[in-house]
Amino acid sequence: MAIPTFVDHVTLHLAAGRGGNGVASVHREKFKPLGGPDGGNGGQGGSIILEVDTSVTTLVDYHHSPKRRAENGGQGAGDHKNGGNGKDLTLTVPDGTLVKDNEGNVLADLIGHGTTLVIAAGGRGGLGNAALSSSKRKAPGFALLGEPGDELDVRLELKVVADIGLVGFPSAGKSSLIAAISRARPKIADYPFTTLIPNLGVVTAGETTFVVADVPGLIEGAAEGRGLGHDFLRHIERCAALVHVIDTATIEPGRNPIDDLDIIESELARYGGLEDRPRLIALNKVDVPDGQGIAEMVVEDLRARGLQVFEVSAASGAGLRELTFAMAEIVVASRVDTPEVEPQRIVLRPRAVDAKADFEVVAVDDPSAGAGQRGWRVRGAKPERWVRQTDFSNEEAVGFLADRLNRLGVEVKLVQMGAQEGDTVLIGAEDNSVVFDFKPSIEAGAEMLGRRGEDERLREQRPARTRRTEIAEAMETKAEEEERADVARRLDAERKKGPNRSSGTSGIGPMAYEIGTKDDPDWDGSDD
């Protein structure tokens, strides 16, 4: 299998780096028992950047290795140490590269040396618990996860940046012409379709320097795929003018310069988008006696059409000076009307669905829902990003997510739309959703939190909390001489006499020690 040396279209599979996770850490130092949170933030994931480099002329490197991945961000650490940012991955592309998505929509047209496009943005790093602390949540027992980077497939198509394009039948002498007027050295042979890839040559005429592109030959029916088809015509879309190179010495029966010109113009019209380009006619091979005679027969007919016609010979150099100066005149006029391209940095931004709303809620079918229950889907940049940042193995992190959604107004919106307790709520796209059971009775606020890493609002029953509540209620009716430990012993004694079978508790109680024993931290060592 032949290895291609010129590739002008390729599909890339890109994955930007993931942001590093934040860390939940508490400062520990001698004589500082309350050091406070000191968890650092995660680093930013590396982005993938396309950069125009005029020294690159083909996409062949990406043909062999189309999968590219940027570096992930580093994880945060204690002592306020942030993770390192992932290194950006820069991919160099030729000047004139067109970037499209899977549906064929044009994302960017990269023109000009140094122009860059951030095609896949790296994920943001997660915040550590030091950054999450506040006056109400002074020592968070959780941190945020890093966000994944963009993952997408893009199609790169090369449209060479040239000023003049040479078109014509195979073996009309296009490659010989570009070799005669420039230092380009394309493959030249005496058989059709010698040129299989576009060739570029730099031409100087007086004080004007410009680029000429030679594309593979066209034949009648190229629009239907005959010959090499229209595939390479995109390389002359950027040209300021087209030069028809017509073979006046062809020996093929039934061909003449007028018909050749009409056939090529018909194929260009079927391709489309080139109607406004000025045309020049180069009647080539006039060094051949038969070619000179045919050129003299058709030159006046072509000029009658309003075309500039030049009788040239790529072999002897006849007429080439006049042709190149005519090209230069058109190029100069085109450059006056076209501003000079300045290098720029392009960043793709997702299009906002509704700039006024941070989220939207829609009713969806939920096959798993019970009778009288419905499903609801929440879509929006903020809710979906918050879900990706949440560590669902940490109750306090889930509670923090609930607080954020409540402040955004998600719960109010669900209630307004008729959501009831127990309904299924999905946040995110259909192929990657997080599912919750709607419970509007949960109170919001960091002041409701208990131990680090836990959220009492998310627990139906906590034995330790139930015990503290019982003791607090009994303290209101205690005898004057009773202390808190006495009240606790009395409650435990009552529990021993009659276990609460409905709750499934034993006579000992929920704690890890029995009141009144040596394991009781309130026991003074005396027997009652």
What does this molecule look like?
The protein has helices spanning 60-64, 129-132, 174-181, 257-271, 289-304, 320-337, 381-389, 395-408, 410-416, 463-475, 484-497; strands spanning 9-15, 48-52, 67-69, 89-93, 97-100, 106-110, 116-120, 151-158, 164-167, 199-205, 208-214, 241-247, 279-284, 308-311, 345-347, 360-364, 375-379, 424-427, 434-437. With 528 residues, it is an alpha/beta fold. The protein has three domains: 9-158, GTP1/OBG domain (Spo0b-associated Gtp-binding Protein, Chain: A, Distorted Sandwich); 164-337, P-loop containing nucleotide triphosphate hydrolases (Rossmann fold, 3-Layer(aba) Sandwich), CATH 3.40.50; 360-448, GMP Synthetase, Chain A, domain 3, CATH 3.30.300. It starts with 8 loop residues before the first strand and ends in a 31-residue tail after the last helix. 23% of the residues lie in helices and 19% in strands.
Q: Using the CA coordinates, give the radius of gyration.
A: 38 Å
Give average pLDDT, whole number: 81
* Largest sheet properties: 6 strands, mixed
Content-based structural category: alpha/beta
Helix amount, in percent? 10-25%
Return residue spans where pLDDT drops below 50 for at least 5 consecutive residues: 500-511
Strand order of the largest sheet: 10-11-9-12-13-14
Give me the CATH architecture of the largest domain, please: 3-Layer(aba) Sandwich
Number of domains: 3
Q: Do you know the CATH topology of the largest domain?
A: Rossmann fold
* DSSP strand count: 19
Instruction: Report the CATH superfamily of the largest domain.
Output: P-loop containing nucleotide triphosphate hydrolases
CATH class of the largest domain: Alpha Beta
Strand content: 15-25%
Number of distinct helices: 11
For the terminal residues, how far apart are their CA atoms?
95 Å
State the shape. Answer: elongated
Order of helices and strands: EEHEEEEEHEEHEEEHEHEHEEEHHHEEHH
